[in-house]
Amino acid sequence: MKTFNSNKINSVPSVKNLCSLCGKTFFLSFFILTILISFSSCKKFLSKTSPNDVADENMFQDAASLESARIGLYNTLQDVNYYGGYFPLMVDAHSDNGQTGGYDSPALDELGNKTLTSSNLYIENTWIEIYNTIYTANQIIEHVDGIEDPTLSDELRNDIHGEALTIRALAHFDLLRMFGEHWDLTSTYGIPIVDHIATPEEIIGRSTVSATYDFIIGDLTAALDLVSNDDYRYDPVVPKGHQYITNDAVKALLARVYQYKKDYANASEFASEVINSGNFSLASNVSDVYTTKLSSESIFELTFSSLDRSQYNAATYARPDALRSEVLFLANENLKEFFAQPDRTNDSRAALVDFVNNDLSIEPDGRTQKYRGEDFQDNSAYIIRLPEMFLIEAEGSSFYPPPESINILRMARGLPAYTPQDVFDGNEVINERRAELNFEGHRFFDLAHWGKVQEVLGADVKSVFPIPLREVTASGGVLEQYPGY
Amino acid sequence: MKRTTITKLLIFVLLFITAQSFAQNYTVTGKVTDANNVELIGATVRLKSDASIGTNTDEEGEFNLKVPEISGALIFTYVGYADKEVAFSVGNMFLKVAMGADRELEEVIVVGYGVQRKSDVIGAISTIKGDKIEDQPVSNVASSIQGKVSGINVSNASGTPGASLLVSIRGLSNPLYVVEGIPLISESNSAIATSYDTQGNVTGSGQSISSISDINPDDIASVEILKDASSTAIYGARASNGVVLITTKRGQAGKTKFNLNYYTGVQSVLHPIHFLNSDQFVALEEEARQNDLNVYNNDNMAFGPDFNPAVLTNPLPDTWHTGVNTDWMNEIFRAAPINDVDFSMRGGSEKTKFFFGTSYFDQQGTVIESYYKRFNTRLNFDHEINDHISFGTNLSITYSRNRRSFNDDVYTGIVTNAIGASPLMPVYNEDGTYSDFTQYQASWLSDNPVKSAHEIIGYTNTYRLLGTVFGQIKFAKNFAFKSSWSADYTYLTDNQYFSPLTVDAENVGGKATDANFNQLIWLGENILTYDKKLGDHHVNLVGGFTLQESQSASQSISGQGFPEGSGLQLVSSAANITGGSSTATGWSLVSFLGRVTYDYKSKYLFEVSARSDGSSRFSPSNQFAFFPAVAGGWRISSEDFFPKNEVLTGLKLRASYGLTGDQEIGDFQYVKFWYPITYDGQPGLAPRNLSDPNLKWQTNKMIDFGFDYELFGARLSGSFDYYKGNKTDLLSEDVIPGTSGFGTITRNYGNIENKGWEFNVDATVLRSAVTWDIGANISYLHNEIISLSTDGVLVSAYNDLAPTHILQEGEALGTFWGVKYLGVDPETGDPLYEDLNNDGTIDDNDAQIIGKATPDYYGGFYTDLKWKNWDLSLSSSFSIGNDVYNLIRGEYESLGWSDQGWDENNVLYQVYANNSDIVNNRWQQPGDQTDIPRASLINLNVYQNSSQTIENGSFFRIRTILLGYTIKPKTTKNFNSIRIYAQVQNPFLFSGYSGFDPEVSSNGGDQPSTAGIDYAAYPSARTFMGGFSFNF
Fold first, then answer.
1. Confidence category of residue B34, pLDDT binned at 50, 70, 90
2. Do A52 and B690 touch (CB under 8 A)?
């Protein structure tokens, strides 16, 4: 009976019961949905992967990821605080070539006024960025030999390995000339050497200057045997573009490092090898160097594009009518006077600095014309060029008689060759370097190399940059500040 | 017989009809009072069987209501009292009604995943009911609690229309907002930045627009603020900064009620900075040159060996005497209208109830061109299928359109450019084109500010849908199971266009960025409740399981070179595409929660709650964390031994301890990544970050002791709390040695302590013909960094400025760093600074701690006065002990300094900036005692990163004054009430601060470590408004 009754109720439900029934169904479906979702594994629900990035553990599995990391390594050089703009520009701003504009920004003013403090943001950012390049190079160096991929030829593996060693050396060298007493091999004020993937907890103090040089030269020497001038990605093999590290670029960097180390024999030897390689030539018109990409003078040039911009144009030119406040890195009036000297009358490089077409607020300072192109702002970083090789060779030679190398350069730039009858005061090379390399990040280091920082910039100005206060703090004081800062 | 019968029948029918038509003739009269026999004026009286028949009590508290039935019941309602039902019948047609004791006793408040009787609450919870909110025309929910609740500091960090308010609970900003049970993201809702430097690089995200800006304040029934761990722990992982619960209005059974609300007003800048006019500007310059000439005449080497004094004596060029006198504040600010119209209806039957509301809000900004408009619709629906099963939905749809003000906080902004612009510069040339800022006397500008306002065009459009569907089943007497499923969908578009007239884009013929962002967050919650009362014992159990997941994506594309004169602004019209990006991210959260509450005679109260959260933001080994809390309460005044007295009539002691967490670190932070980049046109991967695979939850351990008190039979009531919170395992960007390749790593480090006390009192001063309530609250806060992995790290509020703050153990978060200013030398007028390292020069190496952004005390008081149909209320707030780093002051106190603004003939053409009238107090002659140095052309006598620009940020302000008049008709047949009101928001600010507003924070202030910076952010407004509310 009971069964019958309930059947009856179910088959002819009252309105009320119907509602309660659909309510129950409603509730039941909620409940079932809930149970289904709750008991499907929590772990699965909580596992998310980023669609934007690649996890570290998936890198260096094959030739393709090694290639990606190699491009990534060049990209780290492009950072705005390194060769994307500020590193070379701030080095010139902190010399008699440069002055700073901007909006009364303390960090910028310190550079222009040559009154650096250790809390300067530009220096702080550059320090981190250069070590970021070193970190990336170390990633490649540590993993390159472990990759098992039949499509990766030995030539290519060695080439990438050598490029990473070279860039690691370049980065350490840039740190040494910025933060170390690079002119004094007996000094203890070298820089922290990072030859492995450092952990966040690791605290690394300064090495001596000579140990730093040994490390840099070690890397470059090893790279010399690994890096090729050819690109093995193509079959048949083609010459590598100079936007990448080539064997010539390794030699050029070795020449530069030996020159800083004042080992002129080695410096001249490597410089001549580059000059005589036949792969480079002086531009017939110096402005071509700065208006065309990868000119015949570029040994290693970091290139940019309109989608991958550098800061050079924005920071040195901004726009035709720019005010002083808009231009961060100005050309110092002193550079105008330098080019106005009678012996530079026909120097074609004088036209690369403009002291005329500027807003009143910029005067008497001016603007460099090396980084024009306001539309796309894709100006290159001229990391190492052929003229520097001539100047390195010249520095190692006696000026009696004047070396041919400096004369080749002078004549290419519209100046008369030195003759044995000329009187030399020892400033020929540093001056020629100033004329050639201004706004490419050399002047302050040159002044330190020649021991002229105090003479030119002022008695209180130190010959090295301060270690960022942040680093001294983060290292618990292990990283020793340069005396006086 | 027949005839008689028919006649009788006829008579009966006639009588019946007559009776029907004269039915209203029965009259019920009576008097309504409160428990203390005080008449209640304007109490609503309604017939139970037909709610359309009703009236209000008169000035004696009496009523007279004609009813159609001889017996029945009347319902009495009065704000603040429990509704009361009283029967009437023949012979009982005069009712003397004493409204039940203050509703307080029965008042329920919303807690996490449930409600509790207010008397049984043990946690530290503050609540604001909707009637307090709806009387106050505000655009953002948060502003309705400003100054009203202890322990909560709500500040208007920006006057930007639609801008978020900075809410900090017990010193911790960015609380979790839970709207109708949906935890909302509280970060900014914009896909792209609006702050750029002159190089076109992003310098900041600009003023943020809050995600709760989309909630219409008129729809809100109550706001509960959960402060201590016992009330917040049930929100576990996201509750460490406190929780704000927002409940919206729901339908009520009975006649459908309509409400139409409208207000209109006009806003103007509260405290404009007054700048020198052109005569004063020129006079300042002449004085600066004369001062320097005096110095030079005393000492020819004072300005260096190469200095040519001709610049001090050459007459100023003719351009300094054009008679032009532009008041730049006037040019960029305006009296801006604000309008809001809101319509709602609520009603339904006992089984089905609904609330429908729609509103349109239009706020024009006080800076020209900017505005915020919001259109919002809400539908809340509840249906009871039977006694056991019910379901409902909440749905809110919002569209908002925001015309952004650009670069509010950086030196290229509209306000920042107008600050210091030369008064000799006209806005327009004679031919109607914008004047060229480079040709005038102030070098501070980066563009003509009026041009920036008109020619940089940026819109943010937001489409937001918040929806919930829920079902509830009650079974086995004491059980209830509720399942609810919600979605929070946001679609946002940003369009920015820089016309070719702007400095930013004149080289490239105009540039634009179009971007969009979309996010879907869904949430499923399943909550089982058990509630049992057995004699004096009452047990309530809550258990639940929730799932939440977010998926979001954003895209942007930039282009430059627009067809001249075409008016086209979208990137598709650009000649060159200059950038693009497309990214996506997501997170998920699984939670189990539970709570046990037990009370004995409502005298001994006990509660344990816990939540276990699993988050995708942590590595699989650390995904889950457990957040328990325990609390106890003792209503000591209910004890027999408690002396019965007239003064202290109620006292409840409370104590709680618990843990809460924080996971707001962004997605995937525990993974070490390589990100896609390009070089030489080749794709590649570069290292993005270092990571700590052991990343785990940040926890906030909080202990709270407090008591609730009632004096004189609840005429005076309030509470006191002492708390101490320790945030440990902080999740933040920790400083690491740069030799690791990176400057920071996201990891757990350090310990920050927040402790303090808070006290509030609410008093009923009068409750007779005049009712008068007052209330006040005060909170004390002490914030201290206990430990850090790296002590003494300097941070900067702007990435291109010198350090402005320091993170140091023993100091507060938001401690200012800079050189100490010692005042003005009365003899020379030169500024004096402390040379901390005694090296003879003043620079950043002399910096020290010079102030802090957090206040010691804050609070407010309010008063509500009602007399007959009139009501008057006032609310205020104060802050004591906080400093503001007025970095922009260095510009408008540059005192005639020129950054080498003279030509080769030593003729001065340009100085740095115009100055505000604070320089009228400058040093002018030997002996002057002042803290404003002398004017000088050569020396910059203000040091930006020094205590010279630090000002006391303490203030007292009247937030609102409101006067209302309510018309209540004798019968509610046509309408229930009309209320007309007038209000002034922000009428008075008492502060010594020289900038726009000491509450303004240029970087939004939501980064506590760099809080308290003023860089000429969008100023706050004073608003006069009037409106009406029509209930029918």
1. confident
2. no
Q: 3-class secondary structure for A108-166?
A: HHHHHHCCCCCCCHHHHHHHHHHHHHHHHHHHHHHHHHHCCCCCCCHHHHHHHHHHHHH
> Is residue A375 within 8 Å of A359, Cβ to Cβ?
no
Residues 371-400 of B with CB under 8 A from A: 385-386, 388-389, 391
Coil/strand/helix, residue B313: helix
pLDDT category, B202, cuts 50, 70, 90?
A: low
Residue A19 has pLDDT above 50, yes or no: no
In a domain, residue A318? The reply is: yes
- Smallest CA–CA distance, residue A336 to chain B, in Å, is 15
Does the residue A5 lie in any domain?
no
Contact B388 A303 (CB under 8 A): no
Angle at alpha carbon of residue B511, lines to B509 and B512, rounded to 5°: 155
Examine domains B20-101 and B125-270+334-412+447-784+796-886+953-1031 and report if their fold is the same: no
Across the interface, whether the CB atoms of A136 and B198 are under 8 A apart is answered no
Residue A201: closest C-alpha in chain B:
B736
Q: What is the CATH number of the domain that holds A409?
A: 1.25.40.390
Identify whether A483 is part of a domain: no
Residue B709: C-alpha distances to residues A143, B370, B468, B1026 (Å): 69, 48, 38, 38
Q: Which residue has the higher pLDDT, B95 or A162?
A: A162
The answer to whether the CB of B173 falls within 8 A of the CB of B1005 is: yes
Region B242-254: what's the mean pLDDT? 86
A326-347 exposure pattern, b = at least 16 Cβ within 10 A, e = fewer: bbbbbbbeebbebbeeeebeeb
Domain ranges in chain B are: 20-101, 125-270+334-412+447-784+796-886+953-1031
Can you give the residue range of the structural domain that contains A196?
63-474
Q: Under DSSP, is residue B733 helix (H, G, I), strand (E, B) or coil? A: strand
What are B887-944's pLDDT values in tens digits? Answer: 888 889 999 998 888 888 889 888 999 999 999 999 999 999 999 999 999 999 998 8
Name the CA radius of gyration of chain A, rounded. 30
Q: What is the pLDDT of residue A16?
A: 41
Query: Which residues make beta-bridge pairs with B787?
Result: B751
Q: Which of A54, A69, A204 is opposite residue B739, by nearest beta carbon?
A: A204
Q: How many domains does chain A fold into? A: 1
Q: Chain A partners of B473 at a C-beta cutoff of 8 Å? A: 23, 27
Which residue of B740, B819, B895, B903 is the best one to mutate when testing the A interface, meaning the one whose CB has the most A CBs within 10 A?
Answer: B740
Which range has the worst mean pLDDT, A118-122, B161-165, B517-521?
A: B161-165
Chain A hits for B526, Cβ within 8 Å? 34, 38
- How many CA atoms lie less than 13 Å away from B587 in the CB half-sphere? 18
Determine the residue of chain B that is closest to A113 in CA distance.
B843
What is this model's ipTM? 0.89
Unique residue bearing structure tokens 């509020």: B797
Among B773, B911, B789, smallest CA distance to B132 is for: B773
Domain with residues B20-101, CATH architecture: Sandwich (2.60)
φ/ψ of B799, rounded to 5, equals -75, 0
Task: Compute the average pLDDT of residues B693-710.
Answer: 90
Among the partner-chain residues B389, B483, B674, the one whose CB lies closest to the CB of A23 is: B389
* Residue to test with chain A: of B528, B674, B691, most A Cβ within 10 A: B674
Q: What are the Cα distances from residue A202, in Å, to A136, A191, B748, B750, B753? A: 17, 15, 17, 19, 29
Instruction: Look up residue A225 and give its two tokens.
Output: 């045997």
Q: How far is A401 from chain B (nearest CA, A)?
A: 40
Domain made up of B125-270+334-412+447-784+796-886+953-1031: CATH architecture: Beta Barrel (2.40)
**Which of B113, B142, B184 minimizes the C-alpha distance to B466?**
B184
